Amino acid sequence: MAVRSLSKRANALLGRGLVALGCVVAALCLALMGYARTGAVGAGHTWDGAGPAYLTSAVRGGTHTCAVTPDSGEERTVDVPSWPNRGPHVDGRRLDPWFSGPAQVACTDDVTFTQGWVVRLYPLVEQWLVLLAGIVLALVGLDRLGLFRHTSRYP
């Protein structure tokens, strides 16, 4: 059975598409990692309860405890893992509202608090595999464009 190869134009289009897709995936992962660290930092926060919230530690080492006290509903205590010792990895605790209305969040140490629609994307960023997939897609695209072909300039 003969393997049919792509035309030169189709190969170039595929390569450019893979590079673009890989760069977008990698950039989105890195941007979300950075955004998870730009929330309000402190020991006390106000959660509007309209959507999920994400707590990440602003301090390295140990486990940190936060008490969520809503205006209407039961108080809960949650543990927030510490900031990893190396890398931009996001490791935190996602909270879905179990109450209606606002809530006060009081923590033992400084934590970064983010809320809103972007919190739903954080599980993708918690996995290094997504960032790695973006990088691999870009590299495969560059290979399709011929960047890694070894050709000698000298006969």
How does this model look, in words?
With 155 residues, the protein is an alpha+beta fold. It has helices spanning 8-36, 122-126, 128-144; strands at residues 40-47, 53-57, 64-70, 76-80, 92-95, 103-115. It is elongated, with a radius of gyration of 22 Å. The mean pLDDT is 82. Strands 1, 2, 3, 4, 5 and 6 form a six-stranded antiparallel beta sheet that branches. The relative contact order is 0.26.
What's the topology here?
Elements: H1 8-36, E1 40-47, E2 53-57, E3 64-70, E4 76-80, E5 92-95, E6 103-115, H2 122-126, H3 128-144
Antiparallel strand pairs: 1-6, 2-5, 2-6, 3-4, 3-6
Helix pairs in contact: 1-3
List keywords for this structure.
155 residues; alpha+beta; 6 strands
Please write the string of helix (H) and strand (E) elements: HEEEEEEHH
Distance between the termini: 34 Å
Model regions low in confidence, pLDDT < 50 over at least 5 residues: none
Number of E-type strands: 6
Number of helices: 3
Largest sheet: 6 strands, antiparallel
Structural class: alpha+beta
Radius of gyration: 22 Å
Strand content: 25-35%
Taken from the alpha-carbon principal axes, the silhouette is: elongated
Average pLDDT across residues? Answer: 82
Q: In which range does the helix fraction lie?
A: 25-40%
Concise structural overview:
With 155 residues, this protein is of the alpha+beta class.
